[in-house]
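PROTOCOL LOG
Step 1. Enter all chains and additional molecules of the complex.
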Amino acid sequence: MARLVVVGHGPTAYRLIETLVDRGFGGSITVLGEEPRAAYDRVALTSYLTGKSAEDLTYPVPDGITLRLNARVTGIDRESRVVTTADGHTEPYDVLVLATGSSPFVPPVPGKDLDGCFVYRTIDDLDAIREASRGATAGVVIGGGLLGLEAADALRGLGLQTHVVEMGGWLMPRQVDEGGGAVLRGHIEALGLGVHTGAGVKEIVAGPQGRVTGLVKPDGETIEAQVVVFSAGVRPRDELARSSGLAVGERGGIVVDDGMRTSDPAIYAIGECVLHDGMVYGLVGPCFTMAEVAADRILGGEGAFARADMSTKLKLLGVEVAQFGAMDGALDVTFMDPVTGVYQKLFVSDDARTLLGGICVGDATPYNTLKPFVGRELPGAPSELLFTGGPSNMELPDDAQVCSCNNVTKGQICSAIADKGLTDVAGIKACTRAGTACGSCVPMLKQILIKSGVEVSKALCEHFAHSRAELFDIVRVRGITTFSQLITEHGTGRGCDVCKPTVASILASLGNGHILDGEQAALQDTNDHFLANIQRNGTYSVVPRIPGGEITPDKLIVIGEVARDFGLYTKITGGQRIDLFGARVEQLPLIWKRLVDAGFESGHAYGKALRTVKSCVGSTWCRYGVQDSVGLAVALELRYRGLRSPHKLKSAVSGCARECAEARGKDFGIIATEQGWNLYVGGNGGFTPRHADLFASDLSTDELIRTIDRFLMFYIRTADRLQRTSVWLENQGLDYVKEVVLEDSLGICAELEAQMERHVAGYADEWRAVLEDQDRLRRFVSFVNAPGTPDPSIAFEPERDQVKPVLIPLEAVRS
Amino acid sequence: MTVLSEDLSAGLEETGWTRVCAYADLMPERGVCALVDGHQIAVFRTFDGGLYAIGNRDPFSGAYVLSRGIVGTRAEEPTVASPMHKEVFSLVTGVCLDDPGVSVPTYRVRVAGGAVEVSLA
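Step 2. Run joint prediction.
Step 3. Record the structure below.
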């Protein structure tokens, strides 16, 4: 069995291993990573400072491989085929892959090693920068390229007055020309950043404690800063290859052939450490391709790496910047709008028919529409294409590359859509991997879907041609209060188990009295109809509300007594409450009479509604807590209790950053800060776990509640049926929802708040209302002709000192 | 149960019809369950006033719950969806429309003197 050893565990190494495992590599795989953590998404590194955790960014480690962390390889014995790590561990190999990446280049300026100087490469670097930014007021980034601007964005996000110093004559000199650089500079200065182009660094100076206080330019000007980040390019990490006698380039980089093989046939090299055909690559796309080529060769294939597309599209500091194809040509056509800060330039052949490349600043539409035409005849006159964004019926050729990160062509995407019946971008991503790395081709994927004639039906069911959101608007705007009116005027037939509960939920969200009143009762699913949760034997479970998970001993005793007296199985739920199982329908009112008398109310565990607001114990007791998380959780649970929504809503409040309440797994989660509360939205456990995104920081309690009011009501108005906030947020886009909720871009926030106020004012306990009404109570019987008779099919047997259902034997029925 | 025996003796007729409740007790588009000779029978009143009776046992889960399902239509045919896993049954034929190899029994049902009666025959 072949022993494969990989040196380095970054994205490229991850891609290699994943490809090998996917393709059934039969040997053993050992990975030696220098960092203290497994490979993570370095493209998304900056998101680590805006709410993503290290776990969010970390790639999964495939089963069956051996991963050793903190394992820096110091030597390769090519003769015996053994590598040695810094701590003396030896690892024999049959095939070795070097994926050692690159290291940031720090120019040899005086003061470069002072306390307060950083590079921008790893999660540890970011931790250190974040730490140093506390108490700092200004920062400077040395390097105005792609990574430099990303680092500048990060410093700005950390609250520092930020400067960028670039040696070249303009920003991002590798991606844009001078004209584009000037427009880009305008955007960045408008954000309040200082831009210094054509400027070197004379020295970095420190105060009496040895900490950085500023940067001195060659002209003598001093930029004050307590944080200095070097982002002046990267250098391939080829020292291991060099000391092992492998061929390396004059200016660095491990020399490889088209099959990613080094000068030693048992050793491959991939990623940023590589020199291929005189080129070193620092973009994820070509590096992934190298990983796939190496994997193919290791598996005996003939894959070959060819000079890669260096196209780039990114959004830096809110400004779209893109470059594709060549950066010069016989002719060029420029579109510039100084008012909106848009600069677009196309390079074409001397007959102006063949596209050679392009540059975009401020609006990258031409990248999306025209990049696949590089090297081909343009579908129109260049000036017209730039001015109009391209004709709408523009047809891409099938062999045009759409996703350059994963090298996927339009033809491959179209076949996947046709063969697998794909109807959305998520499906295309899963089947072809297009759009999964940098995501810049996602708009193009959408276009291809639309052009493939895929029409995703938004109809709720056979009775309504509308989506849930459309029905919500119809009901709201037209003031409809009954299902009959709605289906008569806007639907067909008499409804089903899909549309009826949906309409019931809409009517309840808009406040139409008790959910069992009048015609509404017939719309409810069995859980809402009996205000309890049906279990597999036809009995129900009961969950009283325990706001924030806080409960008095007396109330705990009542729950215990009720459970004992009715023979119910009890279990603590994940939402910090107590579930009582095994109640027959005729027992439900008797159980709830006892609970309501003791001061309990419905916990809505049966409804698509707010469930619980979980909390940690918070600053009242906990020695780490910084805010009263229990108090806030109780207030939030009481505010939103009974709120019907497209799906269940869960929340939690943590009293400090240790996050004991697991708020980031909730639809809306709150984490205390020294200054107030951070609000996270769109978290989910369940089938597709998702960490919530940071929505707003350091809110006061009033601001927090107003923001949640708006967020929830906007979700309730616009989500699909049974769509949790996580999926809804992905579909709407976090930025869009922020604009609507935080900046009131649609001008509806006052309405959303008023709607929530009506909900809060109109809340009444559903179970108390049932107990007070003989008509509603009459429905709680097993048999209409024998109201006191229990259902004879229900039986229990003991298990671990409690009851469990005796299941009715089931013949195999499904045909 | 006293009430039960009185009700049953009053409802039993030579033809085998059993009175289960007043028609007015049935909520439109909702079901109830009646216990007749040990059989659980789900009785539904549809929107147009029609009455249907099928077995209460959901054959997919084994639980006696069909009377608690949501009543609706599928292409004009009156239906009930099992509250357990939402398989839809025709109220007319008892056949599961999502899996036509599976069905539940149907029973005759009528209104007599304002009362709903079902027959096991």
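Step 4. Note key features.
Residues 1-13 of chain B have pLDDT under 50 and may be disordered.
The domain at 2-119 of chain B is CATH 2.102.10.10 (Rieske Iron-sulfur Protein).
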